[in-house]
Amino acid sequence: MSRRRRYRSSYDRQEFDIKDFMSEIGKWAISILVVVILAYSIVTFGIQSVTMIGQSMESVLSNQDVVLLSKCAYTFQSPKRYDIVAFKLKEETDGYFNIKRIIGLPGETILIKNGRIFINGEALTDLPFEELIMTEGTALEEITLGDGEYFVIGDNCNNSEDSRFVNIGNISAKEIQGKVFYRISPRSEFGSVK
After folding, report:
1. Quick one: pLDDT band at residue 41, thresholds 50, 70, 90?
2. Are 139 and 104 in contact (CB under 8 A)?
3. Regarding beta strands 143-144 and 191-192, do their DSSP bridges make them parallel or antiparallel, or are they unpaired?
4. Residue pLDDT, tens place only, 158-182
5. d(C-alpha 15, C-alpha 97), whole Å
C-alpha cells in the first residue's frame, strides 16, 4: 500500500509540473502576442523613422538625416502653419517620403511676389527661413486652397521641389503621413525638429 501511495504521489507531482509548464507557455504566448500587437500599432498608428532625401529642408534638416514621424499627430487636430510634415503623393507607391513645411492652410489664398509669401493678401513676416524666394512657380498667381488642402515649401526655398511646382502642387490631408518632430541621426544633431 505504501508503494502504491509513493507511485501516486510522484505521478501527481508530474501532472502538476505539466500543468505549471503549460500555464507558463500560455503566459509567454500572451506576452508575445501583446508585444507584437503593440509593435504593429506603433508602426501603423504611432511613430516611424523616416530618412530625409535631398537638401530642400536645409538648414533645419540635411540629406540623410533620420527623423521620427508622429503618425497620430493629426488624429485629433489639424496641421498648423510651419509644421514640418512627411507626405506621399497619391501616385507614389515606393517608400519615399517628401518632407516639407506647411505654409498655407485650407481656405487660404497663397501668392508669392517680390520674393515674399502672401497669405490672404498679407505678407508672412515670421517665416522660419530668411531667403527671398526666387521662383514663384504656380504661386505667381493667387492659389486658393480647397478643403483639406495644404501648401508646402522647403526651408531651402530656392532648392526645393514643393507646392509651387505642378508635379507636387497642393497636398491633401490624406497624403500627409504625419508630423516630423525629432531627429535621431546623425547623433551630433540629435534633438527636436522645429
Report:
1. low
2. no
3. unpaired
4. 999 999 999 999 999 999 999 999 9
5. 57
Cell of 7: 507511485
pLDDT digits (tens, 9 = 90+) for 66-81: 999 999 899 889 999 9
The string of DSSP letters for the chain reads -HHHHHHHHHHHHHHHHHHHHHHHHHHHHHHHHHHHHHHHHIIIIIEEEEE--SSTTTTTS-TT-EEEEETTTTSSS---TT-EEEE--TT--SS--EEEEEEE-TT-EEEEETTEEEETTEE----S--PPPS--GGGGS-EE--TTEEEEE-SSGGG--STTSTTT-SEEGGGEEEEEEEEEESGGG-EE--
Rounded CA separation 102/179 (Å): 10
Amino acid, res. 144? T
**Grid cell of 90 as nine digits:** 497619391
**Are 164 and 137 in contact, with CB atoms under 8 Å apart?**
yes
Mean pLDDT score of the chain, rounded to an integer?
87
